[in-house]
Automatic annotation (TrEMBL):
<dbReference type="InterPro" id="IPR050397">
    <property type="entry name" value="Env_Response_Regulators"/>
</dbReference>
<dbReference type="GO" id="GO:0005829">
    <property type="term" value="C:cytosol"/>
</dbReference>
<dbReference type="InterPro" id="IPR000595">
    <property type="entry name" value="cNMP-bd_dom"/>
</dbReference>
<keyword id="KW-0805">Transcription regulation</keyword>
<feature type="domain" description="Cyclic nucleotide-binding">
    <location>
        <begin position="13"/>
        <end position="133"/>
    </location>
</feature>
<keyword id="KW-0675">Receptor</keyword>
<dbReference type="InterPro" id="IPR036388">
    <property type="entry name" value="WH-like_DNA-bd_sf"/>
</dbReference>
<dbReference type="InterPro" id="IPR036390">
    <property type="entry name" value="WH_DNA-bd_sf"/>
</dbReference>
<dbReference type="GO" id="GO:0003700">
    <property type="term" value="F:DNA-binding transcription factor activity"/>
</dbReference>
<dbReference type="Pfam" id="PF13545">
    <property type="entry name" value="HTH_Crp_2"/>
</dbReference>
<feature type="domain" description="HTH crp-type">
    <location>
        <begin position="147"/>
        <end position="220"/>
    </location>
</feature>
<keyword id="KW-0804">Transcription</keyword>
<dbReference type="Pfam" id="PF00027">
    <property type="entry name" value="cNMP_binding"/>
</dbReference>
<dbReference type="GO" id="GO:0003677">
    <property type="term" value="F:DNA binding"/>
</dbReference>
<dbReference type="InterPro" id="IPR012318">
    <property type="entry name" value="HTH_CRP"/>
</dbReference>
<dbReference type="InterPro" id="IPR018490">
    <property type="entry name" value="cNMP-bd_dom_sf"/>
</dbReference>
<keyword id="KW-0238">DNA-binding</keyword>
Amino acid sequence: MTSAIELLRHVDLFQHLTEQQLEDLAAQTRELTFRKHAIMMTEGDAGESMYVIKSGSVKVYVSDDEGRELVLYQQGPGAAIGDISLLDDEPRSASVSTLEPSTALMIGKQAFLECLRASPEMAINIIRSLTQRLRDATEGSRSLALDNVYRRLADKLQELCVSSDEPDNDEAVTPRKYSHQELGNMIGASREMVGKVMAELVKGEYLEVRDGRIHLLRKLPRNW
């Protein structure tokens, strides 16, 4: 249970809980293991539990009847997902699936609500979290409506890339492989269009793809 307490302690939603409250919450969690591409929750289903990611990573997305996806965001260790439907008793607003083998702590609705009643500070944290999600959604909508595919892709690549783990290398690189389809799902564009833009960026020596990972060689221009 100690590892569960430590994980919960570093989750923004629970950072104001007392040690006893953390222990009580941890005692009611259940650790689950998911294979790669496992569905953790489905848009439209009833929400009876939330999850805290312990290891691995997940994508949060919406889809239409034809199976087309729009990835809202990706989350890694320490992220809390699925809490919204515990608050409003409405169906899940998005689906979540794993991007790699992952583990998560499952927290039932009753345990979550008991913590909320016991800690006003937790309620404030939830408000802040929901506000940030609203801001992110507003920015995403603005980008989809006003930015062209190149600009959306450039912004997404710069968001995904992190400092290289290679010594004496100041390049930014994606932490894992991303297919053109995955990138397209994130920015609301077709796989073919992403491929065309990527090819132009490679030709212009702005980036390289090595072993499937994208390396940014220099800052991407704002417009193309």
